[in-house]
Amino acid sequence: MTGQLAFVESPVQLLNVLEWAHTAAHRDPPRLRAVPPQPTRRAPVAAAGGRPDGPSGRGGTPALADGPGRPDSGLPARTAPGEGTAPADLTVVVLSPTDPMSRGQLRRMAQLARDEGITVKWQDARQGRGAVVRTLRELARPLRTAERVIVGDPFSRYVQLLLTLFGPRRVTVVDDGTATMEFAAQLARGERLVRWHRRGSRGPRELVLAPVTSMARRKLAPGRHRAVEIFTSLPVEPPPGTTVLVNDFSWTRSRFGPPRLTRGADLVGTSLVETGVVDPDEYLRAVTVLARTHGATRYFAHRRESAEKLHRIAVETGLEVVRPDLPLELIARRGPIGRTVVSFPSTVVHTLPLALAGTGVKVAVCEIAPEWLRENASPRAQGFLAGVAGTATLTERLEFG
Q1: pLDDT for res 3
Q2: Which residue has the higher pLDDT, 369 or 193?
Q3: How would DSSP label each residue in 158-218?
Q4: Which of 134, 209, 211, 378 stands the most exposed, by the fewest C-beta atoms within 10 Å?
Q5: Is the pLDDT at 70 greater than 60, yes or no?
Q6: Where is this region: Disordered (predicted)?
Q7: Beta-sheet strand order (sheet of 261-268)
Q8: Helical axes 381-390 vs 348-355, angle rounded to 10°
Q9: How far apart, in Å, are the Cα atoms of 170 and each of 149, 189, 229?
């Protein structure tokens, strides 16, 4: 593995690496290879796919085995088979998480990447004793020889540890949710890298990892011998010396859809309860009101939402809770999808209008009220979430109540 090396830990990160590769194919033709037509193995496909713990209900796709190999993606053929291109020297390393939902989505995304001609290496970086040391040993040489490194989550401790091993001449950061906005702001201000929903206190673990974080921040900053690029669909101010490349989801739109639209609305879930930002009772009340007001019938769960919370939503609101088997941008583009999609402040209020451009779907955002926040939520939470909603210029703002 040499040339261009991407590290991803979530399905959305891998989707955005695919979008970056598609964009690179159109701006840097000499470095590309054509992808031959791929044989398509069809499987029944529903609006959102199956669950990782068994066959899905109501027409979903079968669950995927979470083991080695290349499972059937269960997706429609590309809209233009054989026309895809990918950087000839791009390798994606999946630093696999442990939760089954993320692993299942990543398996399917990995197959989509292979269909585009991209080399994918699955790394069980968190499995068993010695996994970290083994991963560092296996990736040390490719890291040292990489011309470009593509990072999906600059706040990841694992990625930060890997960054201490190399000094690439080019670094690209792709979106992993709204964290890109905070990363760009912290990089511009010269601050240490801290996720927006974490409180400012520094415990023993933070103190031990402080040197790693500090070095990683230097490796992610532009300099005399390093070019830094941010590939994003979010509104960010370019930190001094960096380049911002717009992600308009052209790969997604070229491969899937347009979707069939349903008459009702769909709600998009968030993990703000799980990250300790929003009170669970207030969240459930908001979901209930939104569903009743907009005539929603389905609730698309975030992959990090707990089973207990989702069960409560299903029982108390009557919504059909759907656990997507791919990032929501692909699920929505594949369809069917509601004519209105309602979301709380999250990445999708920026990405869905791009992925669904020209389809007639309206995306609306409901802001988080201050009284919904937990007492111990980060002081930055309200301002950050308001900024996520306020900068989503392609969405409709909702008045809650």
Answers
A1: 86
A2: 369
A3: HHHHHHTT---SEEEEE-BTBHHHHHHHHHHHT-----TTS-S---HHHHHHHHHHHHHHH
A4: 211
A5: no
A6: 25-88
A7: 320-322, 296-300, 261-268, 337-343, 362-366, 396-398
A8: 20
A9: 6, 21, 8
User: Each residue of 337-387: pLDDT tens digit?
Assistant: 999 999 999 999 999 999 999 999 999 999 999 999 999 888 888 888 998
Please give the Cα distance from 333 to 253 (Å, whole number).
7
Q: Which domains does the chain have, with CATH numbers?
A: 3-38+78-251 (3.40.50), 258-398 (3.40.50)
Only one residue has tokens 């459930």, namely 284
Q: Are 230 and 180 in contact (CB under 8 A)?
A: yes
Give the Å distances, CA to CA, from 287 to 43, 291, 298, 301: 33, 6, 11, 12
Task: Give percent of the chain with pLDDT exceeding 90.
Answer: 50
Task: Indicate if the pLDDT at residue 172 is higher than 50.
Answer: yes
pTM score: 0.82
Residue 191, pLDDT score: 79
pLDDT at residue 68 greater than cutoff 80: no
Sign of CA dihedral 131, 132, 133, 135: positive
Nearest to 109 by CA among 123, 97, 94, 124: 94
Most confident residue range from 61-65, 110-114, 222-226: 110-114
User: Looking at residue 82, what DSSP letter applies?
Assistant: T
Bridge partners (DSSP) of residue 343 are 268, 365
- Taken in order 327, 330, 332, 334, the sign of the CA dihedral is negative
In terms of DSSP bridges, do strands 3-8 and 227-232 run parallel, antiparallel, or are they unpaired?
unpaired
Please, are residues 39 and 81 in contact by the beta-carbon 8 Å criterion? no
Q: 57-61, 143-147, 285-289: lowest mean pLDDT where?
A: 57-61
Which tokens sit at 244?
């911002």
Please name the residues in contact with 3: beta carbons below 8 A apart, sequence gap of 6 or more.
87, 88, 89, 90, 91, 146, 147, 148
Mean pLDDT of the chain: 81
Q: How many CB atoms lie within 10 A of CB 358?
A: 8
Q: Which residues pair with 87 in a beta bridge?
A: 32
Q: Give Cα separations from 41 to 75, 85, 150, 185, 399 (angstroms).
A: 8, 21, 30, 44, 45
Number of alpha carbons in the 13 Å side-chain half-sphere of residue 77 = 10
pLDDT at 208: 56
